[in-house]
Each structure stands twice: as structure tokens, then as C-alpha cells.
Amino acid sequence: MITGGIDSSQIQSMIAQLKAHATRPGLTPPVIQTEPAAVPKADFSDALKKSLDAVNASQVDADGMSKKFAMGDDSVSLSDVMIAQQKASINFQATLQVRNKLVSAYHDIMNMQV
User: Fold this and answer.
1) In a domain, 11, yes or no
2) Which residue stretches, if any, does this entry annotate as coiled coil (predicted)?
3) 6, 72, 101, 107: which has the fewest Cβ within 10 Å?
4) Is the pLDDT of residue 1 over 80?
């Protein structure tokens, strides 16, 4: 007998396969979680603080390297000083652009009509 395009013998064989699989020793049914796993939530203020701390650290590092080079420390080369200063400058410019975007978004939200 064909039911909805599937032969009843195929249905019976599928049921038999499911029963055979269920009776295998050592198999446990899958555990279904009803609650989502506890994932630490990223806090915006923490992410912003970490970013600003990283920018500050790169600026402090560049300043320290330039002072060492100016005092004649042979462990610091001019190219290292210039690279550190450029990294600090790029980090600062990126932070400045993010700040500008945030201020612009704030103004857009404040100017919305409710």
C-alpha cells in the first residue's frame, strides 16, 4: 500500500531500523538542552576601556622608545622608534574616528522625532 508517495514497506523498514538502533547497548539518547549555555556577555564599556588602554599603551611605548633613543640607548634603533610612533598614531586616529562615529550616532538619535 502506498501512503502519500511512500510505500508502507519502506515505512516499516525505517521503523525496524530505528528500533534496532535504539536497542544497541551503550547508546544513550542525545541530551537536549532547554536553556542556552552560559556565555559571558561582552559589555560595551569593558570593550571600550580595553581599546582605550591598548591605545594608551602603544603611545606610552612609543614615547618610552623615543626617550631611550634620544638618550643614546643602543638597544633602540631609529626605525623601531618611527614604527612605534606610527603605530601609536594609527591607533589614535582609529580611536578618534570611532569616537566621531559614536558622537554622530548620538546626535542622530537625539534629533529623531519620537
Assistant:
1) no
2) none
3) 72
4) no
Q: pLDDT exceeding 90 applies to what percent of the chain?
A: 54
Statement: the pTM of the whole predicted model exceeds 0.85: no
Residues spanned by the domain of 54: 44-110
> Cα dist. 109→59, 81, 89, 105, 106 in Å?
33, 42, 30, 6, 5
31 lies in a domain? no
Q: Work out the widest C-alpha separation in the chain, in whole angstroms.
A: 95
Q: Which of 44, 56, 68, 61 is nearest to 95 (CA)?
A: 56
Q: In the predicted model, is pLDDT for residue 102 greater than 90?
A: yes
Residue 96 is assigned to a structural domain of this protein: yes
| Residue 99 placed within a domain | yes
pLDDT of 2 strictly over 60: no
Give the number of other CB atoms < 10 A from CB of residue 6.
10
Per-residue pLDDT tens digits for 23-61 = 776 656 556 566 666 777 778 889 889 999 999 999 999
Angle, nearest 10°, between helix axes 44-70 and 78-110?
150
Can you tell me which residue has the cell 581599546?
51
